[in-house]
Amino acid sequence: MRIGVGVIGAGTVGGGVIKALQTNHDQIAHKAGVDVALVHVADLRQECLAEFDLTGVTVSGDAEALINDPAVDVVCELIGGTGVAKTFILKALNARKNVVTANKMLLAKAGVELCQAAVANGVELRYEASVAGGIPIIKALREGLAANRIEFVYGILNGTCNYILSRMTYDRLDFGVALSQAQALGFAETPPDLDIEGHDTAHKCQILASLCYSTQVPLDSVYVEGITKVTRDDVAYASEMGYLIKLLAIIRAVDGGIEARVHPTLVPKTHLLASVRNEFNAIYVKGDVVDATLYYGRGAGRMPTASAVLADIIDIAKRGNAKAPAPFVYDKPRPIRNIGQVVGRYYLRLTTNDQAGVLGKVCTILGEHDVSIASCIQRDPHGKEHVHVVMMTHETAEAALRAALARIEKLDCIEEPTHVLRVLG
Amino acid sequence: MRIGVGVIGAGTVGGGVIKALQTNHDQIAHKAGVDVALVHVADLRQECLAEFDLTGVTVSGDAEALINDPAVDVVCELIGGTGVAKTFILKALNARKNVVTANKMLLAKAGVELCQAAVANGVELRYEASVAGGIPIIKALREGLAANRIEFVYGILNGTCNYILSRMTYDRLDFGVALSQAQALGFAETPPDLDIEGHDTAHKCQILASLCYSTQVPLDSVYVEGITKVTRDDVAYASEMGYLIKLLAIIRAVDGGIEARVHPTLVPKTHLLASVRNEFNAIYVKGDVVDATLYYGRGAGRMPTASAVLADIIDIAKRGNAKAPAPFVYDKPRPIRNIGQVVGRYYLRLTTNDQAGVLGKVCTILGEHDVSIASCIQRDPHGKEHVHVVMMTHETAEAALRAALARIEKLDCIEEPTHVLRVLG
Question: Rounded CA gap, A399 and A406, in Å?
Fold first, then answer.
């Protein structure tokens, strides 16, 4: 018996899949229990194809020919984007082919539609590679922790942001310098907006939230804040208070609703997530039965992502002719909480002109909104015009804090909008 | 459709399975796609059974009645040990029932025989809970990383040892005091030998090594050294050199052979495994496609272990009537390397009477065996009779080091056997 694999897109990830399928052919056949054979590659770019020995493999510039090739049992969509990728996936599902994809943006935007098409055709749509690259987190959530109600997920899901924040933390670089370094090393795209503005993490947050709570989470209900406003000063103040700054996707079940948000977050230095450095990803998951677990590895890159795509292919191959398992989405809407409803602790960096009594005025307003201060850093200004006052609040509702800050911004002594960061836990 | 679960042994883990099956019944049914129902519990201990509402569940003191109960589709063996547990598992497999177990000692000693019985009967034997409790590491190795050839596994697999070493590290306790504390908190059994002598870790090492390399690893070929000889001084010297001491299971593919060994190991403080504290477990796995990954969580305890047992049950339920997947062991023996063949760096703590020239004599002998020294700590003795000289070697074959140490032990200036610890990486 043989499972035929068709790869649409022989670029970074697709090329990795071709390479690993060839290099580890025997290992994969052993694990799958059947021969898993590359039978068709579709790509118009000759330079991508030239890298491989494709003897015996059908090569075409036509994804539809691949989809309709009777030798193809599993279609891998590895071109990305939300245009033709969606068309190809739907055509493949409607042709009753199983589909494996790494396309997080498409899943975040049209996951429900794609899953419904898979169910309607009795085939599978798998996407282990769409979140956290080589880390088998989809499998862990869907199968390994299947007996658990998920209490929360904290994810470092974007290697570019984690690399930049690591350089700001360990090498004391400015954001811009760290970004340039990430780009020079190939960890950041040009333009880098999708990463540093948090949208890539939001796509993954949407996928994990939908999966954890078997519900539809509209992408625009995911609160998103990137790392572009985090300064070297913030990193230093946070460190002084015992924290590192990480871009986290936070997914939580609260009062029958779901929180799904992405923002830079102060993580205690003693938390395992604080030890996740550079371009690595990690997901910290708390289940009601298993308690805390963590999954760590490379969240991007040719071969790590290929490892995840191949795990999906092998699972499909092992299933053979058995019925495809039901997909994650089912029709039980749960309210998605807005960011104002979040309750937590906050880091505030105020920029003042050091007018006498500023601390008193700020604290009075915060107090009037029931926001109390746990700790504070204010340095001797040494003649500087602008002075930072850094505060850590006790637990408060975000809406209350925002109302207080709206009043604080109007004080004469406040020179710039206050920088607000959320604190983990 | 319904899957009937029978639980043999309603103690710590069995009780956890019963509890979670009842509490999370709907969640489990949703994930499995079928009703997963507790139908039979076998235990002679009334006090264990009294904890649960077992209305509608058959309760017996007879495991064989449970095995032969036609309502039972999956038999959970949760009594432990290698005696009747083995008999019950074989009877269940021969009665064509799927079996889920957490019994690492039995799997390490008789895994091949049990797997063969499962294959012969076309049913499954699953054992996620046997290694690292609630962490889905068996699934990660078998499925999530299925496309990878595993280069190595480093595992913190015994919560008792990790707790004791954490107390020695962070609270500067002596081994004996830390052990008493672990026992008082219920993290260590009485007697604690299976844990602290490394045998429990060796059982898990055997299971993972067999799984990673699809081969039979005889339990007595796993090198085992516990943590009882690690002193507070060792912890302090290691820390000074930039390391923490952890009990690791190390599994590696080297030159066509396999290393499978358990011993206290110096782990660089910057390594993620160094951040795994207290009773937690973690497994660091490097695959040739995915690169490094890590899995972290609770390695023991009622509910975390139940989470793993239930994941296995849910997988069996999802499979329905499809053919059982092939088990891990197949007949391709690979040589298991002995400890003398290991190549690595070593920590040596020599106890001398501070005779002038001791360092010279020791280094001369080491040099004659091609063992070179990377760093050394020797303190002013301040009049003490016995003095520690601590050395870190460059990479060397263990056999060469042992030959040198046999000569060093005979020197007049050496007061006690030299304490040797292996260094990670």
Answer: 11
What distances in angstroms separate CA B224 from CA A53, A356, B154, one per listed residue?
46, 67, 14
Contact assessment for residue A178 and residue A170, using Cβ atoms and an 8 Å cutoff = no
Q: State pLDDT tens for residues B354-412.
A: 777 888 899 999 999 999 999 999 887 777 778 899 999 999 999 999 999 999 999 99
Asked if A12 and A95 sit in the same domain, the reply is yes
Per-residue burial over B9-39, b if 16 or more Cβ lie within 10 Å, else e, is bbebbbbbbbbbbeebeebbbebbbeebbbb
Q: Does A289 share its domain with A145?
A: yes
Check if A275 contacts B (Cβ < 8 Å). yes
Report the C-alpha gap between A305 and A80 in whole angstroms.
13
Residues B125 and B151 in one domain: no
Question: Could you tell me where the beta strands, DSSP code E, fall in B79-202?
Answer: 98-101, 125-126, 150-156
Residue B326 lies in a domain: no
Chain B residues touching residue A278 (CB < 8 angstroms): none
Residue A114: give its domain's CATH number. Answer: 3.40.50.720
Structure tokens at A121: 């055709």
Same domain for B150 and B102, yes or no, is: no
Q: How far off is chain B from A417, nearest CA to CA, in Å?
A: 37
Residue A327 included in any domain: no
What are the chain A neighbours of B310 within 8 Å (beta carbons)? 146-147, 289
Check if B1 contacts A (Cβ < 8 Å): no
In degrees and rounded to multiples of 5, residue B205 shows phi and psi of -60, -40
Contact check, Cβ <8 Å, B291/A303: yes
Percentage with pLDDT > 70 across chain A: 98
Dihedral (CA of B295, B297, B301, B303) sign: negative
Tell me, rounded to whole angstroms, the distance of Cα A84 from its chain centroid: 23
Length of chain A: 425
In a domain, A331, yes or no: no
Spatial strand order of the sheet with B74-77 comes to: B58-60, B35-42, B2-8, B74-77, B98-101, B125-126
Question: A398: domain CATH number?
Answer: 3.30.70.260
d(CA A416, CA A291): 42
Token pair belonging to B310: 């239930």
Q: Is A325 on the interface with B (CB under 8 A)?
A: yes
Entry pTM: 0.97
Residues A183 and A94 in one domain: no
By annotation, the residues of A acting in catalysis are 204
CA-angle at A184, arms to A183 and A186, nearest 5° = 60
- Per the DSSP assignment, residues forming a β-bridge with B250 are B154, B261
- Name the percent of chain A in helix, strand, coil, to the closest 5: 40, 25, 35
Question: Which residues in A288-330 belong to E strands, given as ranges?
Answer: 291-298
Which stretches of B320-397 are DSSP H helices? Answer: 358-368
Name the β-bridge partners of B153. Answer: B251, B285
B315 touches chain A (CB under 8 A): yes
**Hey, what are A318's tokens?**
């092992």
B204 in any annotated domain: yes
Which structural domain, as residue segments, surrounds residue B47? 2-133+302-319
Predicted confidence (pLDDT) at residue B262 exceeds the cutoff of 80: yes
Task: Check B323 against A326: CB less than 8 A apart.
Answer: no
Candidates A138, A293, A316: best to mutate against B (most CBs of B within 10 A) is A293
DSSP A336: B
The fraction of chain B above a pLDDT of 90, given in percent, is 88
Mean pLDDT of chain B: 94
Say if CB A328 and CB A164 are below 8 A apart: no
User: What are the per-10-residue average pLDDT scores of chain A (425 residues)?
Assistant: 96 97 95 95 93 96 97 97 97 98 97 94 96 98 97 98 98 97 88 95 97 93 98 97 98 94 98 97 98 97 98 94 70 86 96 83 95 90 82 97 96 93 95
Contact across the interface for A147 and B33, Cβ inside 8 Å: no
